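1st attempt posting a full record on here, be nice pls
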Amino acid sequence: MSAILQLQNVVKQYDNYRAVDNLSFEIPEASVFGFLGPNGAGKTSTIRIITTITKADGGKILFNNQPLSPTHVSEIGYMPEERGLYKSMKVGETVLYLAQLKGMKKSAAKAELDLWLKKFDIASWYDKPIEELSKGMQQKVQFISTVLHRPKLLILDEPFSGLDPINAVLIQDEITEMHKNGTTIVFSTHRMEQVELICEHIVLINKGKNMLNGEVKAIKEQFKKNIYKIDWAGERFSIEEDAPFIIADNPNAANFNPAQSLFIQLKPNNSPQIVLRYLLNKNVNIVGFNEILPTFSEIFIQTVENKPI
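the predicted structure (as tokens):
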């Protein structure tokens, strides 16, 4: 898979503070990519470099295999966590102004804006001042202004913050549709459950450095501890010392019945098949046998704070 964006040993220095420290990673084209890290990790500084708001002090950035330059701004959309609409301007003039900054002709931007306003059922907002809109409504307008020019790379910083469930689903559906049409989506978020549901690849940075990078499925496999949950019907069974597993701590108390459920960890050189054979030989009536993979919240904490899961 080709990369739409490549960072190679990127550095950003503010006086004596290095916000981005020889950072390298790639964003695959047409992927949903998670850009993760704790507060102060260097995410915003990196995004500002990618969007050409600021310049890197070292390293190289390639956009579609070409050195990143201001000409690429028309192919990038960025919605910051701190929304940046002009409160005294009206919705229509605000969006058209921002679209023209991205290189769109006013007539083309007006036609595209009319489509989006109808899609979101908010055509009557065109002449409303931004300051008269609720926070959720302003967020819809911010989203429209971010995607109106149909960017190839869309960077969203906490895009669902402040949205009610209905509008969150509305925005999510539009993001999904854009991804289906080939747009590369980058999520910068603290909500790890969204990462597991949405993202295909991630990079986790801390103190400006790349701490973890790769496919979400592969990373979860990397951090797994060979823990399984067994559910059975009937009486509790005994476990001998030569069993191919040991009892594991309960990683999730939800829906757990200690009389008919058990968390186990495989001993070295054993497999789930060996465990199942052991249990069947003991005439255990197994009704559930599931591997327990770590959540991304657990992986995040272990990586950033160097704490075991």
